[in-house]
Specification:
It is a multi-pass membrane protein. May function as a signaling molecule by regulating the trafficking of other regulators. This is C2 domain-containing protein. It is a single chain. The protein has a six-stranded antiparallel sheet, with no helix packed on it. The chain is globular, with a radius of gyration of 34 Å. It starts with a strand and ends with a helix. It folds into four domains: 186 residues, Sandwich (Immunoglobulin-like); 124 residues, C2 domain (Immunoglobulin-like, Sandwich), CATH 2.60.40; 137 residues, C2 domain (Immunoglobulin-like, Sandwich); 160 residues, Immunoglobulin-like, CATH 2.60.40. By secondary structure, it is mainly beta. It contains six helices and 42 strands.
Length: 738
């Protein structure tokens, strides 16, 4: 047996849910770790209980610690019928366990046990690792008690606070928890064959093992009965054939097809057409000029370049991508036209037989464009040439993100939509910094009314963030505040820090006594707790004077403001909800640890989406996906007029902390058509915790997009994703995070 132990000190809880019908509860806590269960005592009629009880779990395999979660359930004991009701739960992964010297009391928000239950409040725990051999393990609960069932009778043999009508010897021998013992209980025991404890414990966790014959249903919340969650709301595991092969049970089964660099998405074939430039074009107008543009046509799909005015040697360098599965023609037509007010004139055409177009697979070099002589409609050579490149490829092609896509338009639709609204993009969020501001004092203030002492406070502003100090009593011309404030700003520090000293002359009337402006790009940065020097700033009457650096040299006398300002990079700026944070690194790069792995996401497709708009009398949607992890945001291209869009785009992130969350959302693009400036509509989102992913395994699941409406939970569709976390070094990850 290993000498390593996990210590858990249950300190207390705060603001729990009242469950006894009288505005209170009788809470106690059950802890579960590595097939061991412990329980605190019960606190009667207390929504803010304090326990200060410690428990020690044995760690059977320290090498597997990262995969062992600690679960804490807060229950309320109903003394009337000897049942328990869940008030909330929390789950800590093995990556958050630290040695005892580094452990501190943390207050964790309680989560719902099911999506239909109610939970609030916090639970204070101190969790740590120890190898002290003198510490004895705590006594576990009886193996036969189920800890996930609420409102189920239990003997509570080891809790003296719980009354029991049974003698102690009968309680210790009891094997069933379905109801309170009755007169026939002794006969039931004789015919009952006890099962091994491992088979009786139901931890509510469903392993996601794939069955190639059918999709497996994985419930999204714990529960003792599967019918408590509608099957339509369940997580479904799939076995798609992706670029690397078929995915079965998280493993990649290589097939006969060649593998692709995009191995987490289905290969999609595209016809790529690069229109580079033209030369020696003929003149068409009476003035001898030409306003050329190019139409690229495959069947009913047509892409158009921009046009140039009076240019017979234009350069476009635009790429068009036509989905091969929707092409209904074997001929590609590249038509050069002259833009006109009434009807555009035909200049020339170049035709390609699609059966003769070459296939290109990266990392092959890009296909070199060639010059093609323009022809008239009868096929005869004409004056002028077009430089083109035509090839077949996949979404792994480097031109794919910036190309015009046929699936962004309905067949026959030639309307111009700004590419910024439909193309896939990758964004990087700017680094956020905390701005610490200490307003210390002011000197030699000059009030407008000489017959009264000013009632002074300081207003501090960065952009839309405004904070104020208190007024100083007793009033004087050299007030001292010594108040600290915290702001958030982002690089490249375009905003200024503005101090405004105000005199409260009336109940709703303030008078400005002076202003000072501090450019944030001149503020000192720090990544530790070293002391930052203070500075005096001259107060000017107006903001323009305060921003004039040469103003101070002109005037001999100034009121002054004494402050201490610094940019603090030693902390992570919480721009996300703490339980769903995708990045926990501090702002200062010198404090960053090396990455522990790589996260790869394949956004495959969406199914049965709810229509968000109406076109031609039918409900439809123009959707795209957004994935956010760390500082990197990605957005897929927009698929128009489809309730079952196929994206098949793959993205990669570096992982610095496994206790983070990936968020993927589906939106309807409101900028297409008659948008009237409306914002894009959120259809639904999915969150995946990185700590739940096994290294090297490919997870392919169809996630329900659930939205809470006043009428209840509504399913907006399903999102099909492929996810893989690859650890660069397991030893490095355990060294840094264990």
């Amino acid at each position: 047996m290993s000498s390593f132990k996990l210590g858990v000190e249950v300190v207390g809880a705060h603001d729990l849910v009242a469950k006894d019908g009288k505005g209170s509860s009788n809470p106690f806590v059950e802890l579960h770790f590595d097939d061991q269960r412990f329980r605190t005592t019960s606190k009667e009629n207390d929504l803010n209980p304090v326990w200060n009880e410690s428990f020690y779990f044995n760690i059977s395999d320290p090498n597997n610690l990262i995969k062992l979660p600690l679960e804490a359930y807060v229950y309320s004991h109903n003394k009337a019928n000897n049942t328990k009701t869940c008030l909330g739960k929390l789950r800590l992964t093995g990556t958050s366990f630290v040695p005892y010297p580094d452990a501190v009391v943390m207050h964790y928000p309680l989560e719902k046990r099911t999506i239909f239950s109610h939970a609030k409040g916090e639970l204070g725990l101190k969790v740590f690792l120890t190898d002290d051999p003198s510490i004895k393990l705590s006594n576990p609960l009886p193996a036969m008690e189920s800890f996930l069932d609420t409102d189920v009778g239990s003997g509570y043999a080891q809790t003296p606070n719980f009354p029991s009508s049974l003698p102690k010897e009968k309680t210790d021998k009891r094997h069933t928890f379905h109801h309170l013992p009755n007169a026939n209980h002794s006969q039931q025991k004789q015919n009952f064959t006890p099962m091994p404890p491992q088979q009786q414990m139901n931890y509510g966790v469903h392993e996601m093992k794939s069955e190639p014959q059918a999709a497996k249903v994985v419930h999204m919340f714990s529960g003792s009965s599967s019918h408590s969650q509608p099957s339509d709301f369940a997580l479904k595991e799939t076995s798609p054939f992706l670029g690397g092969g078929r995915i079965i049970g998280g493993r990649v089964i290589r097939g006969d097809r060649p593998t692709s660099t995009y191995d987490l998405v289905e290969q999609m074939r595209y016809l790529f057409v690069r229109v580079v430039k033209a030369r020696d074009l003929p003149s068409k107008d009476l003035t001898g000029s030409l306003d050329p543009y190019v139409e690229v046509k495959v069947g009913n799909y047509k892409g158009i370049t921009k046009h140039y005015e009076r240019n017979q040697n234009p350069e476009w360098n635009q790429v068009f991508a036509f989905a091969r599965e929707t092409m209904q023609s074997t001929v590609l037509e590249v038509v050069l036209k002259d833009k006109d007010l009434v009807k555009d004139d035909f200049v020339g055409i170049v035709r390609f037989d699609l059966h003769e177009v070459p296939m290109r697979v990266p990392p092959d070099s890009p296909l070199a464009p060639e010059w093609y002589r323009l022809q008239d409609k009868k096929g005869e050579k004409k004056k002028g040439e077009l430089m083109l490149a035509v090839w077949y490829g996949t979404q792994a092609d480097e031109t794919f993100p910036d190309a015009w896509h046929s699936d962004a338009f309905a067949p026959g639709d030639s309307t111009s939509i700004a590419s910024a609204y439909i193309r896939s993009k990758v964004y990087h969020s700017p680094r956020l910094w905390y701005v610490r501001v200490n307003v210390i004092e002011a000197q030699d203030l000059v009030p407008s009314d000489k017959n009264r002492f000013p009632d002074v406070y300081v207003k501090v502003q960065i952009g839309n963030q405004i904070l104020k100090t208190k007024t100083v009593q007793p009033r004087n011309l050299n007030p001292i505040w010594n108040e600290e404030f915290m702001f958030v700003t982002s690089e490249p520090f375009e905003d200024h820090l503005i101090f405004s000293v105000e005199d409260r002359v009336g109940s709703n009337k303030d008078e400005t006594m002076g202003k000072a402006v501090v450019p944030l790009n001149s503020v000192e940065k720090r990544a530790d707790d070293r002391v930052v020097r203070t500075r005096w700033y001259n107060l000017e009457k107006s903001l323009s004077d305060a921003m004039d650096g040469d103003r101070a040299k002109k005037d001999k006398f100034h009121s002054r403001l004494h402050v201490c300002v610094c940019l603090d990079g030693g902390y992570h700026v919480l721009d996300e909800s703490t339980q769903y944070s995708s990045d926990l690194r501090p702002t200062a790069k010198q404090l960053w640890k090396s990455s522990v792995g790589v996260l790869e996401l394949g956004i495959l497709n969406a199914d049965r989406l709810q229509p968000m708009k109406t076109k031609d009398g039918k409900g439809t949607s123009d959707t795209y996906c957004v994935a956010k992890y760390g500082h990197k945001w990605v957005r897929t291209r927009t698929i128009v007029n489809s309730l079952n869009p196929k994206y098949n785009e793959q993205y990669t992130w570096e992982v610095y902390d496994p206790a983070t969350v990936l968020t993927v959302g589906v939106f309807d693009n409101s900028q297409i058509g008659d948008s009237n400036g409306n914002k894009d509509i959120k259809i639904g989102k999915v969150r995946i915790r990185i700590s739940t992913l096994e290294t090297g395994r490919v997870y392919t699941h169809s996630y329900p997009l659930l939205v809470l409406h006043p009428s209840g939970v509504k399913k907006m569709g399903e999102l099909h994703l492929a996810i893989r976390f690859s650890s660069t070094s397991m030893l490095s990850m355990m060294f840094q995070y264990s």
